[in-house]
Amino acid sequence: MENVKELDPEIYSLIKQEEKRQADKIRLIASENYVSNAILETTGCILTNKYSEGYAGKRYYEGQQFIDQVEQLAIKRAKDLFGAEHANVQPYSGSPANIATYLAFLKPGDTILGMALPHGGHLTHGAKVSISGRYFDAQSYELDATTGLINYDTIRLKALAVRPKIIIAGHSAYPRILDFKKFREIADEVNALLMVDMAHFAGLVAGGVHPSPVPYADVVTTTTHKSLRGPRGAMILCKARHAQAIDKAVFPGVQGGPHDNTTAAIAVALKEAASDSFKKYTAQVIKNAKILAESLMAMGFTLITNGTDNHLMLVDLTNKNISGKTAAKALDKAGIVVNYNAVPFDKRKPFDPSGIRIGTPAVTSRGFKENEMLLISTLIEKVISDPENENFLTKTAEEVQKLCSHFPAPGLEHLH
Ligand code: DSN
Questions:
Q1: Which domains does the chain have, with CATH numbers?
Q2: Residues 40/46/47/52 CA torsion (nearest 10 deg)
Q3: What pLDDT, in 10s, does the model give residues 311-323?
Q4: pTM over cut 0.85
Q5: 31 ligand 1 Cβ < 6 A
Q6: Which of 27, 122, 223, 341 to mutate to test the pocket of ligand 1 (most atoms within 8 A of CB)?
Protein backbone atom coordinates (compact mmCIF):
# COMPACT_ATOMS: atom_id res chain seq x y z
CA MET A 1 0.00 0.00 0.00
CA GLU A 2 2.90 2.33 -0.84
CA ASN A 3 0.65 4.80 -2.64
CA VAL A 4 -1.80 5.21 0.21
CA LYS A 5 1.11 5.49 2.59
CA GLU A 6 2.53 8.41 0.65
CA LEU A 7 -0.73 10.17 -0.21
CA ASP A 8 -2.69 9.68 2.98
CA PRO A 9 -0.58 8.60 5.92
CA GLU A 10 -3.49 8.99 8.35
CA ILE A 11 -5.72 6.48 6.56
CA TYR A 12 -2.68 4.27 5.88
CA SER A 13 -1.86 4.18 9.56
CA LEU A 14 -5.45 3.30 10.51
CA ILE A 15 -5.57 0.49 7.94
CA LYS A 16 -2.28 -0.89 9.27
CA GLN A 17 -3.56 -0.76 12.85
CA GLU A 18 -6.75 -2.54 11.83
CA GLU A 19 -4.70 -5.18 9.97
CA LYS A 20 -2.76 -5.83 13.14
CA ARG A 21 -5.93 -5.98 15.21
CA GLN A 22 -7.42 -8.56 12.84
CA ALA A 23 -4.18 -10.57 12.92
CA ASP A 24 -3.68 -10.48 16.69
CA LYS A 25 -7.19 -11.02 18.03
CA ILE A 26 -9.52 -13.98 18.25
CA ARG A 27 -12.40 -12.69 16.17
CA LEU A 28 -15.65 -14.35 17.20
CA ILE A 29 -18.24 -11.96 15.74
CA ALA A 30 -20.57 -14.41 14.03
CA SER A 31 -21.08 -12.28 10.91
CA GLU A 32 -17.38 -11.61 10.21
CA ASN A 33 -14.69 -13.53 8.38
CA TYR A 34 -11.31 -13.24 6.63
CA VAL A 35 -11.47 -13.14 2.82
CA SER A 36 -8.75 -14.62 0.63
CA ASN A 37 -6.03 -12.61 -1.05
CA ALA A 38 -7.75 -13.24 -4.39
CA ILE A 39 -10.89 -11.56 -3.08
CA LEU A 40 -8.93 -8.68 -1.58
CA GLU A 41 -7.19 -8.12 -4.92
CA THR A 42 -10.45 -8.20 -6.86
CA THR A 43 -12.22 -5.87 -4.45
CA GLY A 44 -9.44 -3.32 -4.82
CA CYS A 45 -9.13 -3.47 -8.61
CA ILE A 46 -9.93 -1.06 -11.45
CA LEU A 47 -13.45 -2.40 -11.92
CA THR A 48 -14.31 0.26 -9.32
CA ASN A 49 -13.88 2.83 -12.14
CA LYS A 50 -16.87 1.66 -14.17
CA TYR A 51 -20.56 2.56 -14.23
CA SER A 52 -22.95 -0.09 -15.49
CA GLU A 53 -26.56 0.70 -14.54
CA GLY A 54 -28.84 -1.96 -15.96
CA TYR A 55 -28.16 -5.60 -16.69
CA ALA A 56 -25.95 -7.45 -19.17
CA GLY A 57 -26.94 -6.50 -22.73
CA LYS A 58 -29.24 -3.72 -21.46
CA ARG A 59 -27.01 -1.08 -19.87
CA TYR A 60 -27.37 2.68 -19.79
CA TYR A 61 -23.63 3.23 -20.41
CA GLU A 62 -21.33 1.96 -23.14
CA GLY A 63 -18.08 0.12 -22.56
CA GLN A 64 -19.57 -2.97 -20.95
CA GLN A 65 -17.61 -5.55 -22.99
CA PHE A 66 -15.99 -6.99 -19.89
CA ILE A 67 -18.35 -5.91 -17.13
CA ASP A 68 -21.21 -7.86 -18.72
CA GLN A 69 -19.05 -10.98 -18.69
CA VAL A 70 -18.05 -10.42 -15.06
CA GLU A 71 -21.66 -10.10 -13.97
CA GLN A 72 -22.83 -13.03 -16.05
CA LEU A 73 -20.10 -15.22 -14.54
CA ALA A 74 -21.13 -14.20 -11.02
CA ILE A 75 -24.79 -14.95 -11.85
CA LYS A 76 -23.97 -18.35 -13.36
CA ARG A 77 -21.81 -19.34 -10.40
CA ALA A 78 -24.50 -18.24 -7.92
CA LYS A 79 -27.18 -20.24 -9.76
CA ASP A 80 -24.95 -23.31 -10.05
CA LEU A 81 -23.73 -23.24 -6.46
CA PHE A 82 -27.15 -22.80 -4.89
CA GLY A 83 -29.30 -24.50 -7.54
CA ALA A 84 -31.27 -21.29 -8.06
CA GLU A 85 -33.41 -20.48 -11.09
CA HIS A 86 -32.41 -16.81 -11.06
CA ALA A 87 -29.75 -14.71 -9.33
CA ASN A 88 -29.29 -10.98 -8.97
CA VAL A 89 -25.78 -10.15 -7.77
CA GLN A 90 -26.11 -6.36 -7.65
CA PRO A 91 -27.46 -5.55 -4.14
CA TYR A 92 -24.96 -3.43 -2.27
CA SER A 93 -25.49 -5.40 0.93
CA GLY A 94 -28.06 -7.37 2.90
CA SER A 95 -30.35 -4.50 3.86
CA PRO A 96 -30.80 -3.20 0.27
CA ALA A 97 -31.36 -6.80 -0.86
CA ASN A 98 -34.19 -7.19 1.64
CA ILE A 99 -35.68 -3.78 0.85
CA ALA A 100 -35.58 -4.59 -2.88
CA THR A 101 -37.48 -7.79 -2.19
CA TYR A 102 -40.21 -5.83 -0.40
CA LEU A 103 -40.34 -3.30 -3.21
CA ALA A 104 -40.76 -6.13 -5.71
CA PHE A 105 -43.87 -7.53 -4.06
CA LEU A 106 -45.39 -5.06 -1.60
CA LYS A 107 -47.16 -1.74 -1.45
CA PRO A 108 -46.70 0.59 1.52
CA GLY A 109 -48.86 -0.64 4.41
CA ASP A 110 -48.86 -4.30 3.34
CA THR A 111 -48.24 -6.86 6.04
CA ILE A 112 -45.00 -8.77 6.52
CA LEU A 113 -44.23 -11.36 9.20
CA GLY A 114 -40.66 -11.91 10.42
CA MET A 115 -38.72 -12.96 13.49
CA ALA A 116 -38.69 -10.25 16.18
CA LEU A 117 -35.39 -8.36 16.40
CA PRO A 118 -34.82 -9.14 20.12
CA HIS A 119 -35.39 -12.81 19.34
CA GLY A 120 -32.71 -12.99 16.67
CA GLY A 121 -34.35 -11.42 13.62
CA HIS A 122 -32.74 -8.65 11.56
CA LEU A 123 -33.58 -4.94 11.50
CA THR A 124 -34.90 -5.30 7.95
CA HIS A 125 -37.28 -8.08 8.96
CA GLY A 126 -39.72 -5.48 10.25
CA ALA A 127 -38.07 -3.70 13.19
CA LYS A 128 -39.92 -0.44 13.90
CA VAL A 129 -36.76 1.67 13.53
CA SER A 130 -36.12 0.29 10.04
CA ILE A 131 -37.83 1.25 6.79
CA SER A 132 -39.21 -2.31 6.84
CA GLY A 133 -41.14 -1.51 10.00
CA ARG A 134 -42.07 2.06 9.08
CA TYR A 135 -43.41 1.59 5.55
CA PHE A 136 -45.06 -1.78 6.09
CA ASP A 137 -47.37 -3.32 8.65
CA ALA A 138 -44.61 -5.36 10.27
CA GLN A 139 -45.76 -8.25 12.42
CA SER A 140 -43.36 -10.51 14.24
CA TYR A 141 -43.04 -13.98 15.73
CA GLU A 142 -41.07 -14.76 18.87
CA LEU A 143 -39.18 -17.77 20.13
CA ASP A 144 -40.66 -20.26 22.56
CA ALA A 145 -40.23 -18.92 26.10
CA THR A 146 -39.17 -22.25 27.59
CA THR A 147 -37.08 -23.85 24.83
CA GLY A 148 -35.75 -20.75 23.04
CA LEU A 149 -36.66 -22.54 19.81
CA ILE A 150 -38.84 -21.46 16.92
CA ASN A 151 -42.37 -22.69 17.45
CA TYR A 152 -43.91 -23.33 14.04
CA ASP A 153 -47.43 -23.64 15.48
CA THR A 154 -47.12 -20.12 16.89
CA ILE A 155 -45.92 -18.79 13.54
CA ARG A 156 -48.78 -20.52 11.77
CA LEU A 157 -51.38 -19.06 14.12
CA LYS A 158 -49.84 -15.60 13.78
CA ALA A 159 -49.79 -15.94 9.99
CA LEU A 160 -53.45 -17.00 9.98
CA ALA A 161 -54.30 -14.00 12.15
CA VAL A 162 -52.38 -11.29 10.28
CA ARG A 163 -52.40 -12.74 6.72
CA PRO A 164 -48.96 -11.43 5.67
CA LYS A 165 -48.03 -10.95 2.03
CA ILE A 166 -44.48 -12.07 2.83
CA ILE A 167 -43.25 -14.41 5.55
CA ILE A 168 -39.58 -13.95 6.38
CA ALA A 169 -37.45 -16.79 7.68
CA GLY A 170 -33.88 -16.09 8.69
CA HIS A 171 -31.99 -14.53 11.52
CA SER A 172 -28.84 -12.92 12.86
CA ALA A 173 -28.64 -14.75 16.16
CA TYR A 174 -30.50 -18.08 16.12
CA PRO A 175 -28.25 -21.09 16.75
CA ARG A 176 -30.46 -23.76 15.18
CA ILE A 177 -31.44 -24.94 11.73
CA LEU A 178 -34.69 -23.61 10.29
CA ASP A 179 -37.33 -25.96 8.94
CA PHE A 180 -37.85 -24.42 5.50
CA LYS A 181 -40.49 -26.99 4.55
CA LYS A 182 -42.64 -25.95 7.51
CA PHE A 183 -42.20 -22.28 6.61
CA ARG A 184 -43.29 -23.12 3.05
CA GLU A 185 -46.39 -24.92 4.28
CA ILE A 186 -47.37 -21.97 6.47
CA ALA A 187 -46.77 -19.54 3.59
CA ASP A 188 -48.89 -21.66 1.26
CA GLU A 189 -51.71 -21.90 3.78
CA VAL A 190 -52.02 -18.11 4.00
CA ASN A 191 -51.11 -17.48 0.37
CA ALA A 192 -47.94 -15.57 1.27
CA LEU A 193 -44.58 -15.44 -0.44
CA LEU A 194 -41.74 -17.06 1.47
CA MET A 195 -38.54 -15.04 1.72
CA VAL A 196 -35.52 -16.59 3.42
CA ASP A 197 -32.69 -14.34 4.52
CA MET A 198 -29.80 -16.79 4.67
CA ALA A 199 -27.09 -14.16 5.16
CA HIS A 200 -25.69 -15.83 8.25
CA PHE A 201 -25.63 -19.40 7.02
CA ALA A 202 -25.16 -19.01 3.23
CA GLY A 203 -21.63 -20.42 3.45
CA LEU A 204 -22.88 -23.46 5.32
CA VAL A 205 -25.53 -24.01 2.63
CA ALA A 206 -22.90 -23.64 -0.09
CA GLY A 207 -20.67 -26.15 1.71
CA GLY A 208 -23.51 -28.66 1.93
CA VAL A 209 -23.47 -28.77 5.74
CA HIS A 210 -26.79 -26.96 6.24
CA PRO A 211 -30.15 -27.51 4.49
CA SER A 212 -30.80 -25.20 1.57
CA PRO A 213 -33.80 -22.86 1.57
CA VAL A 214 -33.59 -22.45 -2.21
CA PRO A 215 -36.01 -25.26 -3.16
CA TYR A 216 -38.64 -23.94 -0.73
CA ALA A 217 -38.45 -20.16 -0.88
CA ASP A 218 -39.80 -17.78 -3.48
CA VAL A 219 -36.88 -15.50 -2.74
CA VAL A 220 -33.62 -16.06 -0.87
CA THR A 221 -31.55 -13.03 0.08
CA THR A 222 -28.02 -13.20 1.39
CA THR A 223 -25.00 -11.13 2.09
CA THR A 224 -21.80 -12.48 0.61
CA HIS A 225 -19.34 -11.64 3.37
CA LYS A 226 -20.35 -13.73 6.36
CA SER A 227 -19.96 -17.52 6.37
CA LEU A 228 -19.82 -17.37 2.54
CA ARG A 229 -16.48 -15.56 2.95
CA GLY A 230 -16.74 -13.19 0.02
CA PRO A 231 -16.56 -9.41 -0.31
CA ARG A 232 -19.09 -7.16 1.38
CA GLY A 233 -22.09 -7.41 -0.90
CA ALA A 234 -25.29 -9.36 -1.40
CA MET A 235 -27.32 -11.48 -3.77
CA ILE A 236 -30.95 -12.31 -4.32
CA LEU A 237 -31.80 -15.80 -5.55
CA CYS A 238 -35.34 -16.47 -6.70
CA LYS A 239 -37.68 -18.57 -8.76
CA ALA A 240 -37.69 -17.72 -12.47
CA ARG A 241 -41.24 -16.37 -12.22
CA HIS A 242 -40.02 -13.64 -9.85
CA ALA A 243 -36.89 -12.75 -11.82
CA GLN A 244 -38.26 -9.68 -13.55
CA ALA A 245 -39.83 -8.23 -10.42
CA ILE A 246 -36.63 -8.72 -8.42
CA ASP A 247 -34.35 -7.29 -11.11
CA LYS A 248 -36.58 -4.22 -11.54
CA ALA A 249 -36.71 -3.71 -7.78
CA VAL A 250 -32.92 -3.81 -7.37
CA PHE A 251 -32.35 -1.52 -10.35
CA PRO A 252 -33.89 0.99 -10.86
CA GLY A 253 -36.06 0.42 -7.78
CA VAL A 254 -33.58 0.72 -4.96
CA GLN A 255 -30.13 1.15 -6.44
CA GLY A 256 -28.16 2.88 -9.15
CA GLY A 257 -24.96 1.51 -10.60
CA PRO A 258 -23.75 -1.83 -9.28
CA HIS A 259 -20.31 -2.01 -7.70
CA ASP A 260 -18.58 -3.97 -10.44
CA ASN A 261 -15.44 -4.65 -8.39
CA THR A 262 -17.65 -6.24 -5.75
CA THR A 263 -19.54 -8.23 -8.38
CA ALA A 264 -16.23 -9.63 -9.64
CA ALA A 265 -15.13 -10.44 -6.10
CA ILE A 266 -18.47 -12.19 -5.49
CA ALA A 267 -17.75 -14.30 -8.58
CA VAL A 268 -14.34 -15.22 -7.13
CA ALA A 269 -15.90 -16.04 -3.76
CA LEU A 270 -18.49 -18.27 -5.41
CA LYS A 271 -15.72 -20.13 -7.23
CA GLU A 272 -13.92 -20.63 -3.91
CA ALA A 273 -17.16 -21.71 -2.24
CA ALA A 274 -17.65 -24.46 -4.83
CA SER A 275 -14.32 -26.07 -3.91
CA ASP A 276 -13.71 -29.14 -1.76
CA SER A 277 -11.60 -27.13 0.63
CA PHE A 278 -14.54 -24.80 1.26
CA LYS A 279 -16.75 -27.81 2.05
CA LYS A 280 -14.17 -28.92 4.62
CA TYR A 281 -14.00 -25.38 5.98
CA THR A 282 -17.75 -25.21 6.56
CA ALA A 283 -17.82 -28.62 8.25
CA GLN A 284 -15.07 -27.37 10.59
CA VAL A 285 -17.00 -24.14 11.30
CA ILE A 286 -19.85 -26.25 12.69
CA LYS A 287 -17.53 -28.65 14.54
CA ASN A 288 -15.78 -25.70 16.14
CA ALA A 289 -19.06 -24.11 17.18
CA LYS A 290 -20.31 -27.32 18.72
CA ILE A 291 -17.18 -27.96 20.76
CA LEU A 292 -17.02 -24.36 21.93
CA ALA A 293 -20.69 -24.50 22.93
CA GLU A 294 -20.28 -27.81 24.78
CA SER A 295 -17.21 -26.61 26.61
CA LEU A 296 -18.88 -23.35 27.68
CA MET A 297 -21.93 -25.24 28.93
CA ALA A 298 -19.68 -27.65 30.86
CA MET A 299 -18.26 -24.57 32.60
CA GLY A 300 -21.72 -23.42 33.70
CA PHE A 301 -22.63 -21.03 30.88
CA THR A 302 -26.26 -20.89 29.77
CA LEU A 303 -26.64 -21.20 26.01
CA ILE A 304 -29.92 -20.34 24.37
CA THR A 305 -31.40 -23.66 23.11
CA ASN A 306 -28.60 -25.50 24.95
CA GLY A 307 -26.18 -25.48 22.08
CA THR A 308 -25.89 -24.91 18.36
CA ASP A 309 -26.38 -26.58 14.99
CA ASN A 310 -24.74 -23.83 12.97
CA HIS A 311 -21.86 -21.37 13.21
CA LEU A 312 -23.06 -19.34 16.20
CA MET A 313 -24.18 -19.52 19.78
CA LEU A 314 -25.96 -17.10 22.06
CA VAL A 315 -24.76 -17.04 25.66
CA ASP A 316 -27.13 -15.75 28.36
CA LEU A 317 -24.89 -14.31 31.07
CA THR A 318 -27.66 -13.68 33.60
CA ASN A 319 -26.42 -16.43 35.95
CA LYS A 320 -22.88 -15.02 35.74
CA ASN A 321 -24.01 -11.67 37.13
CA ILE A 322 -22.43 -9.70 34.32
CA SER A 323 -24.08 -7.83 31.47
CA GLY A 324 -23.35 -8.66 27.85
CA LYS A 325 -21.74 -5.28 27.29
CA THR A 326 -19.41 -5.51 30.30
CA ALA A 327 -18.43 -9.03 29.25
CA ALA A 328 -17.84 -8.05 25.61
CA LYS A 329 -15.72 -5.06 26.64
CA ALA A 330 -13.58 -7.16 29.04
CA LEU A 331 -13.17 -9.87 26.38
CA ASP A 332 -12.09 -7.27 23.83
CA LYS A 333 -9.38 -6.05 26.19
CA ALA A 334 -8.27 -9.67 26.49
CA GLY A 335 -8.02 -10.01 22.70
CA ILE A 336 -11.28 -11.90 22.19
CA VAL A 337 -13.82 -10.01 20.09
CA VAL A 338 -17.53 -10.78 20.39
CA ASN A 339 -20.65 -8.63 20.30
CA TYR A 340 -23.13 -8.10 23.09
CA ASN A 341 -26.53 -9.35 22.10
CA ALA A 342 -30.08 -9.46 23.41
CA VAL A 343 -31.34 -12.88 24.44
CA PRO A 344 -34.98 -13.89 23.91
CA PHE A 345 -37.25 -12.19 26.48
CA ASP A 346 -34.30 -10.12 27.67
CA LYS A 347 -35.07 -8.05 30.76
CA ARG A 348 -32.17 -5.70 30.07
CA LYS A 349 -32.02 -2.89 27.50
CA PRO A 350 -30.78 -3.56 23.91
CA PHE A 351 -27.75 -1.30 24.44
CA ASP A 352 -26.65 -3.33 27.46
CA PRO A 353 -28.36 -6.69 27.09
CA SER A 354 -27.90 -10.00 28.92
CA GLY A 355 -26.01 -11.96 26.29
CA ILE A 356 -23.08 -12.25 23.96
CA ARG A 357 -23.11 -13.81 20.50
CA ILE A 358 -20.17 -15.98 19.51
CA GLY A 359 -19.44 -17.32 16.02
CA THR A 360 -16.74 -19.49 14.48
CA PRO A 361 -16.46 -18.56 10.75
CA ALA A 362 -13.47 -16.21 11.12
CA VAL A 363 -11.36 -18.26 13.53
CA THR A 364 -11.97 -21.36 11.41
CA SER A 365 -10.66 -19.48 8.36
CA ARG A 366 -7.36 -19.01 10.16
CA GLY A 367 -7.15 -22.72 10.95
CA PHE A 368 -8.40 -22.95 14.52
CA LYS A 369 -9.69 -26.41 15.37
CA GLU A 370 -11.00 -28.28 18.42
CA ASN A 371 -7.98 -27.63 20.70
CA GLU A 372 -8.09 -23.89 20.10
CA MET A 373 -11.85 -23.92 20.77
CA LEU A 374 -11.26 -25.53 24.16
CA LEU A 375 -8.61 -22.95 24.95
CA ILE A 376 -10.93 -20.12 23.89
CA SER A 377 -13.70 -21.39 26.15
CA THR A 378 -11.30 -21.44 29.10
CA LEU A 379 -10.14 -17.90 28.35
CA ILE A 380 -13.73 -16.67 28.03
CA GLU A 381 -14.59 -18.24 31.38
CA LYS A 382 -11.59 -16.68 33.12
CA VAL A 383 -12.23 -13.22 31.67
CA ILE A 384 -15.91 -13.26 32.54
CA SER A 385 -15.08 -14.35 36.09
CA ASP A 386 -12.64 -11.47 36.54
CA PRO A 387 -13.63 -8.70 34.11
CA GLU A 388 -12.04 -5.83 36.02
CA ASN A 389 -8.62 -7.35 36.51
CA GLU A 390 -6.76 -5.17 33.99
CA ASN A 391 -3.44 -6.95 34.50
CA PHE A 392 -5.01 -10.29 33.79
CA LEU A 393 -6.82 -8.95 30.71
CA THR A 394 -3.57 -7.52 29.33
CA LYS A 395 -1.73 -10.77 29.99
CA THR A 396 -4.49 -12.73 28.28
CA ALA A 397 -4.32 -10.44 25.24
CA GLU A 398 -0.61 -11.25 24.99
CA GLU A 399 -1.36 -14.96 25.22
CA VAL A 400 -4.02 -14.55 22.52
CA GLN A 401 -1.59 -12.70 20.27
CA LYS A 402 0.94 -15.51 20.65
CA LEU A 403 -1.66 -18.12 19.78
CA CYS A 404 -2.80 -16.12 16.75
CA SER A 405 0.78 -15.79 15.51
CA HIS A 406 0.77 -19.57 14.89
CA PHE A 407 -2.37 -19.29 12.71
CA PRO A 408 -1.79 -16.71 9.96
CA ALA A 409 -5.12 -15.29 8.86
CA PRO A 410 -5.93 -15.18 5.13
CA GLY A 411 -4.90 -11.83 3.70
CA LEU A 412 -2.71 -11.08 6.70
CA GLU A 413 0.08 -13.64 6.20
CA HIS A 414 2.63 -10.84 5.83
CA LEU A 415 2.14 -9.91 9.48
CA HIS A 416 3.10 -13.32 10.85
N1 DSN B 1 -24.89 -7.01 11.20
C2 DSN B 1 -25.08 -8.41 10.88
C3 DSN B 1 -24.79 -9.30 12.02
O4 DSN B 1 -23.85 -9.03 12.74
O5 DSN B 1 -25.45 -10.30 12.20
C6 DSN B 1 -26.42 -8.68 10.34
O7 DSN B 1 -26.56 -8.01 9.14
A1: 41-273 (3.40.640.10), 276-415 (3.90.1150.10)
A2: 150
A3: 999 999 999 999 9
A4: yes
A5: yes
A6: 122
